[in-house]
Amino acid sequence: MSVFSMKSNEDEMNEMLESLLLPGEQLEAGITCMIYDTGFFAVRIPSAGYLGLTDSGRLIGWAFHAANNERLAVDFAYVTKVRIRQPLLSGKLVGQRDILMDYNDGKKHTLHFLMQQKVGGGKFPNQAENVRRIADEIEYLSRSLGK
Predict the structure, then answer these.
(1) Which DSSP state fits 138?
(2) Residue 82 belongs to a domain with what CATH number?
(3) Which domain holds residue 100?
């Protein structure tokens, strides 16, 4: 599977996200976003992706790379640091949020993604509301970490 397997509407996106749910878990909000590689040798070109918020306090998702798809799962219990930035020029105009999450599930990781409220084409009608829901949850997590 590759970037070409990315689904084209909200129902198909939610179906892909629901395939990552644990038994008894529910998807609360799903968005399309840009996901960045992290680390010293990371490619600085973002990948298209989906992120979903679950009712058990996890972010799940898919990052679509040219050659394959990468599954993502971050349990909020393992998050150690959250940085929320607004891009300087266009952030306020289009409701963008640049998020970096450090987490440690036995190994240190960083998840870096860019959420935006508007997506072209109109096939994601709940994008703006779901971005707000996920942003609120991440801001609450950030405050609870005291950072």
Answers:
(1) H
(2) 2.30.29.30
(3) 3-145
